[in-house]
């Protein structure tokens, strides 16, 4: 198990806050970004061990963010969960082709996100290994 930091990439402040507050109460370190471009900037200066990514965002959507993260200079291999209101199989296929590890359709309860993060092998910072 790894202890790490989760980045929530979501343009809805209410959704970001909802997930962030829940995960922080459960002991996870959480940061947030408004869109894919801001998330890439955060990756350039920080370390993250998983990302929760929306698809429909301004400036850079989730698909492009994932492709940039996976194919960029540093080629990040962290687990990425897409959480989107897009429910067509083609949307899921695009996300997996971009490099996502999981795809959940909104609304998603935060305990389901926590379970997925733990499935990725990431535990809260204060957890004993």
TrEMBL record:
The modification 4-aspartylphosphate is found at residue 54. InterPro entries: CheY-like_superfamily (IPR011006), Sig_transdc_resp-reg_receiver (IPR001789), ST_Response_Regulator (IPR052048). One of its GO terms (biological process) is phosphorelay signal transduction system. Residues 5-121 form the Response regulatory domain. The keyword Transmembrane does not apply. Keywords: Phosphoprotein. SUPFAM superfamilies: CheY-like. The keyword Phosphoprotein applies. Pfam families: Response_reg. It comes from the Bacteria. This is Response regulator.
């Amino acid at each position: 198990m790894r202890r790490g930091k989760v980045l929530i990439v979501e343009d809805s402040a209410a959704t970001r806050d909802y997930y962030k507050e829940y995960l922080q109460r459960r002991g996870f370190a959480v940061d947030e970004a408004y869109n894919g471009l801001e998330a890439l900037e955060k990756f350039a200066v920080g370390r993250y061990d998983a990302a929760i990514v929306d698809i429909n965002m301004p400036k850079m959507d989730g698909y492009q963010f994932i492709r940039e993260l996976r194919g960029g200079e540093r080629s990040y291999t962290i687990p990425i969960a897409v959480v989107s209101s897009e429910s067509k199989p083609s949307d899921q296929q695009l996300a997996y082709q971009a490099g996502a590890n999981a795809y959940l359709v909104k609304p998603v309860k935060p305990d389901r996100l926590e379970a997925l993060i733990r499935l990725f092998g990431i535990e809260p910072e204060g957890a004993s290994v």
